[in-house]
Write a structure and sequence with these properties.
alpha+beta; 6-stranded mixed beta sheet; 3-stranded antiparallel beta sheet
Length: about 425
């Protein structure tokens, strides 16, 4: 990765230690109170300016002065990255127009409202199958010490979205455990450079073989369509194709898996709201939006940088500085959402920035919403006595600056 180019006289005024991972919202709330834009050192050592208040975050996410494409805009003529670095950093989420426009257009047709709506029967069938398997597993374990206990992430929250995105892309679902391992290592803030490199290399070789297979035997899936576009119209090069697959696969399951798991935890921690939702399932669409706002599957948007002085909230960020738009903090800003730390399944949570804003707004947001609605509806109906199987204080969050997700969520099905 590119070394952070920073001005030591203006960065690092706040230090986020390893305990940040267990309470990121608490850290961000403190920063939000300090000011609209605050320089910090994150746990992995990176130095950033944090934008934490709702109005500023929303504006910054759409501000063209905050750039994404560091490969083309911050590197010098002598910079020679290894192929893996390029593979992980030339996707559309790390691109600016016109490259971003070109790359997003290639996959947008796979995420149209009509296409997503057509996936409902398959998602419902997958959901039912996973929940039945959970029930069977809990029944078979009922005589054990932890009778009826299931890890909701392992059994449901992870396999549902990863299976959906694998089928949409044309990736064998049997490989999903490998993706979980690779994604976890790449997104972790505590992985060593060697561990992240090993995971990225494994994914790189996997996609190389998969692309070759799709070229030899195309199918009705997104990877085949992208390979055909690469070979026929040449709107993207081989590196961009590889990076696109990495982004779609990782982003296609991480956010939704965290929504299902952390959203379930939020409901279990608020029994009155859970009972309210059970009694009135028509609240589900609004409840999904509120769970996105409240649970925040991501701590912040992916990094941006300045090329010129940029004033935000009365604070001037110097050129060549890294910036994080803290979407989870924006979603808990009392200036936008009254009593923001309270879960309210009937709240009008529209305008939340859990999926970002502007040209980089999550392309898969409609799919995540659909999966979330189906998952919560079926889970609550199938297991009316669902409960947390451990003390909430025992739960551990993944050590990732970006991802706001639990390592495990032990539950009892009733």
């Amino acid at each position: 990765m590119l070394d952070r180019v920073t001005n030591p006289s203006v960065v690092g005024t706040e230090q986020f230690g390893p305990d940040y991972f267990q309470d990121p919202l608490g850290f961000f709330a403190r920063i939000r109170e300090q000011g609209p834009v605050v320089p910090v050192t994150m746990p992995e050592g990176g130095q950033y300016w944090l934008i934490t208040r709702y109005a500023d975050v929303r504006a910054a996410l759409a501000d063209p002065r905050l750039h994404k494409d560091y490969v083309r805009k911050l590197t010098g003529p002598d910079w020679e990255p290894d192929p893996l670095t390029l593979f992980l950093n030339v996707h559309m989420l790390a691109a600016d127009p016109p490259d971003h426009t070109r790359l997003r257009k290639l996959v947008a047709k796979a995420f149209t409202a009509r296409r997503i709506a057509g996936l409902r029967p398959r998602i419902e069938a997958l959901t039912a199958s996973l929940l039945e398997a959970m029930a069977a597993r809990a029944a078979s374990d009922s005589t054990l010490e932890n009778g009826g206990e299931v890890d909701l992430i392992e059994a449901f929250a992870f396999p549902l979205p990863v299976t959906v995105i694998c089928e949409l892309l044309g990736v064998p679902a049997g490989d999903q455990e490998s993706f979980k391992s690779w994604s976890g290592a790449i997104l972790s803030s505590v992985s060593t450079q060697e561990e992240a490199l090993e995971a990225g290399t494994a994914m790189y070789h996997y996609f190389t073989e998969l692309i070759a297979a799709k070229r030899a035997a195309p199918a009705d899936d997104l990877i085949s369509a992208l390979v055909d576009a690469r070979d026929t119209d040449d709107p993207l090069d081989e590196r961009e194709l590889m990076a696109m697959l990495f982004l779609l696969l990782v982003a296609g399951h991480e956010t939704t898996a965290n929504l299902i798991a952390t959203g379930t935890l939020g409901l279990l921690a608020h029994p009155a709201e859970l009972a309210r939702l059970r009694s009135d399932p028509s609240l589900l669409p609004d409840a999904v939006e509120e769970l996105l706002r409240y649970s925040n599957p991501l701590n912040h948007a992916t990094e941006r940088f300045t090329l010129e002085p940029v004033e935000i909230g009365g604070v001037t960020i110097p050129p060549r500085e890294w910036v994080l738009c803290v979407t989870s903090s924006a979603n808990r800003d009392p200036g936008r959402f009254p009593d923001p730390d309270r879960l309210d399944v009937g709240r009008d949570a529209s305008g939340h920035v859990a999926f970002g804003h502007g040209i980089h707004h999550c392309l898969g947001a409609p799919l995540a919403r659909l999966e979330g609605e189906i998952a919560f509806r079926a889970l609550l109906a199938r297991f009316p006595e669902l409960s947390l199987a451990v003390d909430p204080a025992e739960l551990r969050w993944r050590p990732s600056s970006l991802i706001h997700g639990l390592e495990r969520l032990p539950v009892r099905l009733g």
